[in-house]
Structures are given as structure tokens and as C-alpha cells.
């Protein structure tokens, strides 16, 4: 771990330049540029709100905030994993010619997604104010799931980007999988009508755990249990370590497959 | 004490079915026993050492394993067998243009590429004007990289790369770039670096260059070490005879 941090320090400048590159490329040729980071989740939210309040007649209090919590977490997860997946392959012309740590590309791409997420998060808080959500000191606790979610996303991206080098099919499978995941992440509906046992089954989905954490803090002003915290942390760490392990193991084999 | 020691290094390359066949094909072929991976040794039992300030020339026809060996020395690949001991900072200029991004402008690319070569931000800030001057790209700094002519691109690439101050310098056919005046200028600059106290490894298809510059020569053929030693002229003569006999007119790639 110490070695890892030392190594990262050494390449910090490259990391920053890679983040900049990804950022510039992303908004290249758009008129609104970075404003899209804020606009596109807002538009999604607007559509979802329209559909579910007008067509499905969902009238729970703070429904917009409820919906936003789900969208916020899920879009960060799906974007950073989807984009993270292709990073290694896209940078193949670099790591086959220059000796740089390969995980750096995945980290940089995730950092860019994290910046996006933070922008959306600030909009989220504005919405909370508009929705008359009562702010408490407990909001500080939101840092906990955010940090873990970053780890989780980086871990998944590491795994996916490695697999993607070996099997290009992964991108299609992952698209289908994230779609499935979206429907079981309780983004636009509630679990009230399900039996307690079924409600427990939903907790298998790590993304739902994050979303639920946010909702508990923001809407219910209650703090999840200690076990809940431990579950989140162990899942995130497990995924992250697995990702690192894959990179360590296959570090020198990627070269043959690109 | 040697600065670079290559001991019994062998590198195995794999090619064959595993590449881009997709998940379904992979599973199918694995199940039907139709999955074939062929291996070949790109380099076999290579041995040599280099002292500080020496200059090694690596010669051999295409497919001799030169580039693979360079990749192993620079740490991009790991040898399948054997060990490589190296000391100090290595700069491998295998391909000058790798790492540039077409969508970024000249300034951004300079920093990106510089970061890849291991420069610090401070160093680049100081040297930036010098790089642009040397590449003769004043006034083009805000142009996207894709709009540069290929001459401009290679000039920029060279100007960034030639600031390296490594202990071991690895060059794959990049002694000089560009045309006319710039060719002279870049070659002079390269010689300046080589004549510093860096240990240099040069892959070249130009025998004259090797004869003139190198203090040591390694001749590879199909992954095997044919000859290696300080008798540069002699080995080059042997290689020349070999080329004449096999009817290959030195390869151009």
C-alpha cells in the first residue's frame, strides 16, 4: 500500500494531465460545455418526474428529492463504470510504448466522473432546499457513502476494463446488466407494497444500499445502523481490492491482447 | 558495477485464437478443444552488460526481436525467463509520437506528453518556451494537434523527448527527424545527449550509424543472439556479409 501511494505520487502530474485530457475531450465541440454535466441529469429527472407523477400518479411527499437521490447515485455508477470499461483499451497506444502504470487511466477517467458527480450533487442540494427538506447535521454523514461509492466504482471499472481487453462482448452484457440493475435499484418506486422478506432481498443490490443511505439521511433524518455501514464498507473494499488484484495479476498480459 | 545487466533473457510472445474472438467463440472453442494459442520466442537467451557511458547498437533484420528486447529493458514487458538489472532512470523513446492526442492543442499535448516521459510540471513550465522554439512552432500553440502537418508533429515530439536526462537512454530509430535544417539540428541535439554520460541503446538499420557511434554491438537473428562484443567493426562486417549472402538488402522498415 505504501509502495502504491509512493508510485501514485510519482505519477500525480501525469494523472492530472490525463484527467484534463478526458475532460476536454468530453465536451469538445459542444456549445454548453461543462453545463451539460448539470443539465443532462436534470433533464432525466424532469422526464422521470413527469412520467411518474402525471402517468402513474405517484404523489408521495418529497417525491422529486426521492427520485433525485436514486438518479444521482445510479447515474454516477453507470457512467463511471461504462466509461471506465473502455479506458484501458483506448489508451493501448500509450502503455504499449511508454512504461506508465495502467491503472492510472482508469483512475483518471473515474476522477472525471467524480467531478461530474460533485456538480450534480450540488444541484441536488439546491433541489433539497426548493423541496423544503429539513437540513440537519446528519448530512455530513453523506460523505461516508460517497467515499465508498468512489471506491466501489473504481473497483468495478478496474475489473471491467481488464475484462474488456480480453472480451469485447463485455460492453453489451454490461449495458443490459446496468439496465436490469436500474429497475431493481428502487429509483422511481417505493418498497412499501412488498413484504419485509422481499424488501430484504433488494438489499443484495449494493447500488440500492447507497441510494437508501442517501434517502434515510436526507428524507428521514435518521442514521442507518452500524451493520449497514459495515456492509457498505466491506462490499466497496472487496470490489476495489478485487480490481487491484486483477490489475496486478494481468498487468503484463494486457499487452498481448490489444 | 554495470548499469544494465541482461541475463539469460527470453521473451515468449503468444499469438493465435485468443485475440478478439469474443466471449462466445472463446467458450465454444475451449469446450470443443479447438482453442489454439501459438507461442514463439521473440528473444531467446540474450546476455549482455553495459557500463556507464557505453553505447550499444542492436542490429538485425525485421523480426529479430529488437523491439521486444527494448520493451523488456524499459519495463513495458517482463521477460518470460531471465532477469534484467537496471540502475537509475530509464528513458525509452520507442515511438516519439505515442501519447499525443489529436483533439488537444499543442500546448496541452506538450504537457501531456511531458508528463508521460516523467517530467515535472515545474520543469515543463520552465522549458515550455524552449520546446516550442526548438520545434519552430511559435504561433501554432493553440492549434489542435490534428491540424498540424506531420513534419510539425514529429518536430514537436522530438523537441519534448530530447529534454530527457536519463541514466539509460533507449532509442528505436529516432536519431533525427524532420527535413533539411531540422534534421541536422535534431541529430546534433541527439548526439549531445548521447555524448553526455547516459548509457545508450540504439536500434538502427543504418550500419554506418552503428559503426560510427557505438562502442558495443549486439546482433540478433530470429530472437537469438548471434554475436555481441566490443569489436564493432568486425561484427558489422559479419552482419554485412550475412546480409549480402542472404540476398536481403538491409530492410527498410
Q: From the 3D coordinates, which CATH architecture of the largest domain in chain B would you assign?
A: 3-Layer(aba) Sandwich
Number of E-type strands of chain B: 9
Helix fraction of chain A by DSSP (H/I, runs of at least 4): over 70%
Please report the number of helical segments of chain B.
8
Task: List the secondary-structure elements of chain B in sequence, H or E.
Answer: EHEEHEEHHHEHEHEEH
Distance between the termini of chain B: 36 Å
Compute the number of strand runs of chain A.
Answer: 0
Strand order of the largest sheet of chain B: 5-6-7-3-8-9
Low-pLDDT stretches of chain A: none
Overall SS class of chain A: mainly alpha
Beginning-to-end CA distance, first to last residue of chain A = 28 Å
Can you tell me the CATH superfamily of the largest domain in chain B?
A: P-loop containing nucleotide triphosphate hydrolases
Rg value of chain A: 19 Å
What is the averaged pLDDT score of chain A? 90
What profile does the largest beta sheet of chain B have? Answer: 6 strands, mixed
What number of domains of chain B? 2
Q: How many domain units of chain A?
A: 1
Amino acid at each position: 500500500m505504501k509502495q502504491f501511494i509512493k508510485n501514485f505520487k510519482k505519477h500525480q502530474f501525469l494523472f492530472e494531465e490525463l484527467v484534463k485530457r478526458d475532460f476536454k475531450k468530453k465536451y469538445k465541440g459542444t456549445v454548453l460545455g461543462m453545463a451539460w454535466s448539470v443539465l443532462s441529469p436534470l433533464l432525466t429527472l424532469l422526464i422521470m418526474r413527469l412520467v411518474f407523477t402525471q402517468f402513474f400518479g405517484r404523489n408521495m411527499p418529497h417525491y422529486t428529492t426521492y427520485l433525485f437521490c436514486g438518479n444521482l447515485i445510479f447515474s454516477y455508477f453507470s457512467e463511471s463504470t461504462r466509461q471506465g470499461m473502455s479506458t484501458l483499451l483506448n489508451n493501448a497506444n500509450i502503455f504499449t510504448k511508454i512504461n506508465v502504470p495502467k491503472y492510472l487511466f482508469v483512475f483518471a477517467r473515474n476522477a472525471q466522473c467524480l467531478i461530474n458527480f460533485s456538480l450534480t450533487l450540488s444541484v441536488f442540494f439546491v433541489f433539497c432546499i426548493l423541496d423544503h427538506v429539513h437540513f440537519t447535521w446528519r448530512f455530513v454523514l453523506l460523505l461516508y457513502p460517497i467515499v465508498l461509492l468512489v471506491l466501489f466504482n473504481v473497483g468495478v471499472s478496474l475489473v471491467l476494463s481488464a475484462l474488456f481487453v480480453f472480451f469485447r462482448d463485455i460492453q453489451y452484457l454490461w449495458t443490459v446488466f446496468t439496465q436490469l440493475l436500474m429497475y431493481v435499484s428502487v429509483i422511481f418506486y417505493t418498497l412499501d407494497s412488498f413484504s419485509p422478506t422481499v424488501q430484504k432481498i433488494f438489499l443484495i443490490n449494493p447500488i440500492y444500499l447507497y441510494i437508501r443511505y442517501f434517502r434515510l439521511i436526507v428524507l428521514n433524518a435518521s442514521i442507518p445502523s452500524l451493520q449497514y455501514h459495515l456492509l457498505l464498507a466491506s462490499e466497496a473494499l472487496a470490489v476495489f481490492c478485487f480490481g487491484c488484484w486483477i490489475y496486478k495479476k494481468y498487468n503484463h498480459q494486457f499487452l498481448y491482447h490489444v | 558495477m554495470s548499469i544494465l545487466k541482461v541475463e539469460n533473457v527470453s521473451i515468449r510472445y503468444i499469438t493465435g485464437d485468443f485475440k478478439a474472438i469474443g466471449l462466445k467463440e472463446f467458450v465454444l472453442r475451449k469446450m470443443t478443444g479447438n482453442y489454439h494459442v501459438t507461442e514463439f520466442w521473440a528473444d531467446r537467451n540474450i546476455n549482455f552488460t553495459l557500463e556507464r557511458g557505453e553505447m550499444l547498437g542492436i542490429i538485425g533484420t525485421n523480426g529479430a526481436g529488437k523491439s521486444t528486447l527494448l520493451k523488456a529493458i524499459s519495463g513495458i514487458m517482463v521477460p518470460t525467463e531471465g532477469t534484467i538489472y537496471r540502475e537509475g532512470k530509464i528513458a525509452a523513446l520507442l515511438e516519439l509520437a505515442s501519447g499525443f492526442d489529436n483533439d488537444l492543442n499543442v500546448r496541452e499535448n506538450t504537457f501531456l506528453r511531458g508528463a508521460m516521459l516523467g517530467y515535472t510540471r515545474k520543469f515543463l513550465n520552465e522549458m515550455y518556451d524552449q520546446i516550442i522554439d526548438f520545434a519552430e512552432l511559435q504561433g501554432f500553440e493553440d492549434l489542435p494537434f490534428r491540424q498540424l502537418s506531420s513534419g510539425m508533429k514529429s518536430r514537436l515530439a522530438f523537441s519534448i523527448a530530447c529534454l530527457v536526462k536519463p541514466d539509460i537512454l533507449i532509442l528505436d530509430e529516432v536519431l533525427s527527424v524532420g527535413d533539411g535544417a531540422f534534421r541536422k539540428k535534431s541529430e546534433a541535439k541527439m548526439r549531445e545527449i548521447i555524448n553526455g554520460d547516459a548509457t545508450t541503446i540504439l536500434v538502427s538499420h543504418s550500419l554506418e550509424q552503428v559503426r560510427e557511434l557505438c562502442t558495443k554491438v549486439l546482433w540478433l537473428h530470429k530472437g537469438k543472439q548471434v554475436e555481441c562484443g566490443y569489436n564493432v567493426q568486425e561484427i558489422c562486417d559479419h552482419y554485412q556479409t550475412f546480409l549480402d549472402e542472404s540476398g536481403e538488402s538491409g530492410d527498410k522498415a
